[in-house]
């Protein structure tokens, strides 16, 4: 399972607007933003790792004026963390990832007063992104490059779902999933502003995205929980802990 998840990350980064292959790494470069959360690298499973390879990867990041940063499934790159630490990298976070299959998915009812649908216009996408930012950081904003990125994700076979308050038409949260690779897709960006929490919207949005993936013939959906509370939400709809991921960057 770890290898399938890691290979899906490699495929996702390779689909970025300006990916760079540097030895055993692929860098998912997006020229529209310098955000480290968008521009990061991951190792290709089975490729030999070395200090020289890490140095070349760092140089590739610096040539693009991007911060060297990686996200990866720990078991698929034995010894890489030590090489990165020796090169001045610092651990940001360690996460469990969870997986879901069609057999384990449990779809809850959509909370009363809300509807779930895919954003179909740039105005929809901007409203969903603003709601996600409000849920994550408390600031509602949606930059044009972020709207374009979501549109591009949908055009490549990715999925986005927004929760809409039926009485007002306002967006109450949302999330997305990357285009599946080898039957595997990452679900991410699940966020609900504080005013709409504790109604079951996060679970409903996550389950709807996951169901759409399986309807499109995906076999495995995976995601990461930001903490115990979100982990319990995901487990209730059929996600199960499956492995470890590392976030690490060079200042």
TrEMBL record:
Gene3D superfamilies: 3.40.630.30. Signal peptide: none annotated. It comes from the Bacteria. InterPro entries: Acyl_CoA_acyltransferase, GCN5-like_dom, GNAT_dom. Residues 114-251 form the N-acetyltransferase domain. This is GNAT family N-acetyltransferase.
């Amino acid at each position: 399972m770890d290898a399938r998840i890691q290979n899906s990350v490699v495929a996702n980064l390779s689909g970025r607007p300006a990916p760079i292959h540097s030895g055993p790494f692929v860098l998912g470069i997006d020229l529209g933003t310098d955000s480290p959360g968008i521009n990061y690298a991951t190792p290709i499973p089975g490729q030999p790792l070395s200090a020289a390879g890490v140095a070349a990867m760092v140089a590739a990041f610096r040539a693009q004026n991007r911060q060297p940063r990686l996200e990866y499934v720990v078991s698929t790159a034995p010894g890489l963390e030590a090489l990165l630490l020796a090169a001045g990298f610092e651990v940001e976070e360690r996460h469990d990832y969870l997986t879901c299959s069609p057999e384990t998915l449990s779809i809850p009812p959509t909370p009363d007063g809300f509807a779930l649908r895919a954003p179909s216009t740039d105005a929809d996408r901007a409203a969903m992104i603003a709601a996600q930012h409000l849920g994550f950081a408390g600031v509602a904003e949606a930059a044009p490059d972020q709207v374009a990125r979501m549109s591009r994700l949908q055009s490549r076979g990715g999925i986005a779902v927004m929760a809409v308050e039926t009485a007002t038409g306002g967006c109450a949260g949302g999330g997305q999933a990357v285009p599946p690779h080898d039957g595997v897709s990452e679900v991410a960006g699940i966020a609900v502003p504080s005013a709409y929490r504790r109604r079951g919207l996060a679970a409903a949005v996550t389950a709807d995205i996951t169901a759409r993936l399986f309807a499109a013939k995906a076999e495995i959906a995976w995601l990461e929980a930001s903490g115990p509370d979100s982990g319990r939400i995901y487990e209730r709809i059929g996600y199960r802990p499956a492995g470890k991921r590392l976030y690490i960057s060079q200042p």
